[in-house]
Write a structure and sequence with these properties.
Elements lengths: L2 E8 L3 H16 L6 E5 L3 H8 L5 H4 L5 E8 L14 H12 L3 E7 L12 H4 L3 E7 L11 E4 L5 E4 L6 H17 L3 E6 L5 H14 L6 E6 H10 L6 E4 L1 H14 L7 E5 L5 E5 L16 H13 L4 H16 L17 H11 L2
Parallel strand pairs: 1-2, 1-3, 3-12, 5-10, 8-9, 8-10
Antiparallel strand pairs: 4-5, 4-11, 6-7, 11-12
Helix pairs in contact: 1-10, 1-12, 2-4, 6-7, 8-9, 10-11, 11-12
The structure holds 3-isopropylmalic acid and magnesium ion (MG).
Amino acid sequence: MKQQVLVLPGDGIGPEVTRCALQVLNKVIAGSELDLTMVEGAIGGSGYDQYGDPFPEPTRALLPTTRAVLFGAVGGPQWDTLERRFRPEQGLLGIRAAMGVFANLRPAILYPQLAAASALKPEIVSGLDILILRELIGGIYFGSPRGIETLASGERRGVNTLVYTESEIKRIAHMGFRIAQQRKGRLCSVDKANVLECSELWRDVVTQIGKEYPTVELSHLYVDNAAMQLIRDPKQFDVMLTSNLFGDILSDAASMLTGSIGMLPSASLNQDNVGMYEPIHGSAPDIAGQNKANPLAMILSVAMMLRHSFERNDLALQIENAIGTVLDEGLRTPDIAPAGTKAVGTVAMGQAVLDALI
Ligand code: IPM
Ligand code: MG
């Protein structure tokens, strides 16, 4: 059966890393019996430029027949002054909501070859393998009321609303416990229950759900402490379960433990494992079009897609092993090259992964 992959290269370095990732995808699926049709769409700033909308209707119309979305990156300074609803980020938030991808998996794995690129000492990060599971379509990102209003006094007031229902907390909690069962069996739920009622409910519901998973060791941390522990002793964590905003912040922090944000893929899944796969690095407009971007996070996102939406762990491993090989060979893009050493460009890194595929 043919299955559709919607490719959304987006802005900045998105198109160049997507190009590498598609070459890798085409090579691994050749002769694999996985029959994929790739269709391309516009999103973000380029969606706005083409259609006046960061989440254009022709892109939205492709979703019902799509099994997986490969998403490059969105954003750039030329769109920052637009009215909020036209900004590139609204395209990303819009498609997440439209697909119902409530579970965002952000693995932070330190490749042994890159231990020196981490901001922390090698003994603190070597062997690091944590998964941040971030709730993605609720919380303060989507709560209402929201807006900037002008009071009678003439002063402006900004408002956002942090809100989670029990069912929203339950579905992400179940996902967290199931993932922890398949890993080291430890789940740390992150909240701010000492201050926020919404977090108090979060902790209560997660604790209840935990009773259904007696083999998983559940702990809770306040988000400020979690941020500190993540830097102090990151290897204490297996799976971290977070709300939307806390996961946004902690996953950027975790990326630096692994050497570079240019190495980290992500998967966003709905109830049926329809997924969106994107590197967590964003559009990096400062280096766009200069053949400097690290394509590995995007290529690793393809591996996650094959694993989660197409149940082809074998093909995912082929890609991950190929990346291991090129790192062993010493190839480094500028973001992961030690100071003073020679780095390769996006195209050469992509080609090396292609060559290393067996
Ligand atoms: C991320 C990004 C997005 C988010 C932005 C670009 C809207 O930071 O995926 O982490 O905040 O979710
Ligand atoms: Mg972020």
